[in-house]
Design a protein that fits this description.
The structure holds 2 protein chains of 2 kinds. Helices cover 69% and strands 0% of the residues of chain A. Chain A is mainly α. Chain A has one domain. Chain A is globular. By secondary structure, chain B is α+β, with helices and mostly antiparallel strands. Chain B folds into 2 domains: 202 residues, Alpha-Beta Plaits (2-Layer Sandwich); 35 residues. In chain B, 33% of the residues lie in helices and 14% in strands. Chain B has a 3-stranded mixed sheet. A two-stranded antiparallel ribbon of chain B has the order 2-3. A two-stranded antiparallel sheet of chain B has the order 4-5. Classes of the chains: A mainly alpha, B alpha+beta. The interface between A and B is large, with 60 and 59 residues.
Chain lengths: 390, 258
């Protein structure tokens, strides 16, 4: 890997350009202010730094807690090879979401206020605490990988002792704030388009985060298998696809039942770009992946599985952008489209995340299994080692 | 007992003179933002506006809700509802998340977008004057009594009286009596309120209740969740151990467990 570091490839050049542009935008954001760099306004106080960086970043990181639950709580140990990359993705996702928040907050230097100035009635307060605690948990969950790398056996032993309670805490915290990101919008029933507003928003957010989290596991496994040239665990990934499909279906049924019960079906017949976006979201995130993932044949084909995961992620992203931007825009005369600065900061954060993932997985035992003594039960899952990469 | 203060704004009496607008600017030491006050809009430098809708004028400023969404959503408690009625904002606590702006049903809070250390800005019902027993600057300046200051209870009675005594003059609703749980600013008008630019699709219940309904489920979710996870952990671990033992017994290679 290290020898390749200075080799220029097309994507590396693109990445460097994105990072440089992002840094310039960062400089302008913190010297000229939010007004000069964003298209936010009094009528549209939240843009893509919240809608994309926060809502999507945290949502896509859900693979971290779901795979922890699968492997360490439900003890389905054959999924262990997928857990570490998922935890790493989650950790990076949260760190980047917090970075995005630093751009969005008007007074980011005062963010510590949330620790000592409490308002337990606020959903944002709950989200802030959960994200703080869960990012710490993710760091702890990731720490054995660092400890293994530097062979710190004593610390590793301590970590193993507290691993299960920490993981349970992580699952509970994730459950709370993944859903709470949806609860943020419960207080604006009159400002959100009826197709999206629902008292079940927290439930939708939770379920869609779980399905998107599993889709991310498929997505990154496919890509890293290609990048690092190691084998793809298609049987495990197709199970991930199946779980994702089940959660998509439950979420979809809930949404439709709610639309029927609350008498909102008529909004589906209104010809407008807002309605079409709702249909597009369902098409991308529900119908297309459901078509492929419901069939065992497609599910066990790595190409179809990969494409399904892409659709799930796209549908998820569109859903979050719809909730945070278009469903609100539909109800006011105000409009919002992100500025070049907003877009370039977001792109910079995404690129930094991908590079960090690549670097860490190449230099730390991310795609390696935990100590093999844990794995005697499943002899057919062959551990991957970094020595294969080098 | 402290009586809550409030304002009653009667559209039928407003002549669109802009005295309230100017008094507010002066009271809060705000710069001029528009030569024609009727064309101005709420901003970080304008806490109240007078708008023209055909023959009618319509005043806008913070409604000072009974159960304010801004107070409920602020993660650091920068907003408070005082016992006198005004909803206040403390810039020293604010982290700038702008959830107050997102959540406000009346779309009132404004942001200092061009400030590098931005604050949220809005009408505070002249809290400093109220504490001294003075009325708000705008109501004092109003030459026709269109903006009336007083005890909230009295204002409600007065508004109902006007509607009852002149049923042909007034549209029979008091804006702010029930909207989003009610507010300390009340408006009465000859025409439906949506014609005057007021948000007309507000639920009657106080909006923070919608959040509370979700938040109060948290302890249950945590309790049931923790029990479920612990149970699942114990069960599945035991299941794996049993499976392991059985396997060992079957193959005959009985190893001693550690």
């Amino acid at each position: 890997m290290r020898n390749n570091f200075l080799k220029f490839t097309f994507w590396k050049v693109v990445g460097v350009i994105i990072i440089v542009a992002g840094l310039v935008s960062t400089y302008i954001r913190f010297t000229k202010g939010l007004g000069a760099t964003t298209n936010l306004s009094d009528a549209f106080p939240w843009g893509i730094w919240i809608g994309f960086d926060m809502l999507c970043g945290v949502g896509l990181a859900a693979g971290g807690f779901t795979l922890c639950a699968v492997t360490h709580i439900f003890n389905i140990e054959k999924f262990k090879p997928l857990t570490r990359p998922a935890i790493l993705t989650a950790f990076l996702g949260y760190v980047l979401a917090i970075c995005g928040l630093m751009f969005d907050l008007g007074r980011p230097w005062d963010i510590w206020h949330a620790i000592i100035m409490w308002n337990p009635h606020s959903v944002m307060f709950e989200v802030a605490w959960c994200v703080m605690l869960y990012t710490t948990v993710l760091f702890l969950e990731f720490s054995p990988i660092i400890l293994e790398r530097f062979k710190l056996a004593k610390l590793l032993k301590i970590m193993k002792l507290v691993a299960i309670p920490i993981m349970m805490l992580g699952i509970l915290l994730s459950t709370l704030h993944q859903s709470s990101l949806g609860s943020l919008y419960l207080i604006i029933p009159e400002k959100m388009h009826p197709l999206w507003y629902s008292p079940l928003l927290p439930v939708y957010f939770y379920l869609s985060a779980i399905s998107a989290g599993f889709a991310m596991v498929i997505f990154e496994s496919y890509l890293s298998a290609r990048a690092f040239n190691h084998g793809l665990k298609i049987n495990l990934l197709s199970t991930c696809g199946l779980i994702s499909f089940i959660f998509i279906l439950v979420n979809f049924v809930l949404k439709i039942v709610y639309l029927i019960v609350s008498g909102k079906l008529q909004y589906l017949m209104v010809p407008s770009s807002t309605t079409y976006l709702f249909y597009l979201e369902i098409l991308l995130g529900t119908i297309v992946p459901s078509f492929f993932l419901s069939s065992k044949k497609f599910r066990e084909n790595k190409k179809y599985l990969y494409f399904s995961s892409l659709f799930i992620i796209a549908g998820f992203l569109l859903n979050r952008m719809n909730v945070s931007v278009t469903a609100l825009a539909a109800m006011t005369t105000a409009t919002y489209f992100p500025s070049v600065y907003e877009i370039s900061v977001t792109l910079m954060l995404c690129t930094a995340g991908m590079w960090a993932f690549k670097f860490l997985s190449a230099n730390f035992p991310v795609f390696e299994e935990e100590e093999k003594s844990d794995l005697v039960i499943v002899p057919n899952s062959k551990p991957l080692t970094l020595s294969e990469l080098k | 007992m402290i009586k809550q203060k409030g304002m009653l704004y009667d559209v039928t009496l407003c002549i669109g003179c802009g005295s309230c607008y100017n008094a507010c600017k002066e009271q809060n030491k705000l710069p001029e933002t528009n030569k024609d006050f009727l064309k101005d809009h709420l901003s970080d430098k304008t806490y109240t506006v007078v708008e023209q809708y055909g023959d009618h004028y319509s005043r806008k400023n913070c409604m000072h809700c009974q159960e304010p969404a801004c107070v409920s959503v602020c993660p650091v408690g920068a907003f408070t509802k005082t016992s006198l009625g005004p909803v206040l904002y403390d810039a020293n606590k604010c982290i700038g998340c702008r959830y107050c702006m997102q959540a406000c049903p009346h779309k009132v809070p404004r942001y200092e977008w061009s400030n590098l250390n931005p604050r949220v800005r809005k009408c505070i019902l002249c809290y400093d004057r109220l504490k001294k027993g003075l009325p708000t600057a705008c109501s004092e300046a109003c030459p026709t009594g269109a903006t009336m200051f007083g005890d909230l209870d009295d204002l409600r009675i007065e508004a109902k009286k006007r509607l009852k005594e002149n049923p042909n003059t007034y549209y029979q609703r008091i804006y702010g009596l029930e909207e989003a749980g009610g507010s300390n600013v009340l408006v009465i008008s000859p025409v439906p309120f949506e014609q005057l630019g007021f948000v007309s699709n507000l639920p009657k219940q106080a909006l923070p209740k919608l959040t509370a309904q979700a938040m109060e489920k948290i302890p249950g979710v945590v309790g049931v969740g923790a029990a479920f996870l612990t149970g699942m952990y114990w069960l599945t671990k035991r299941k794996n151990e049993v499976a392991k033992e059985e396997k060992h017994n079957k193959t005959g290679s009985v190893n001693n467990e550690k």
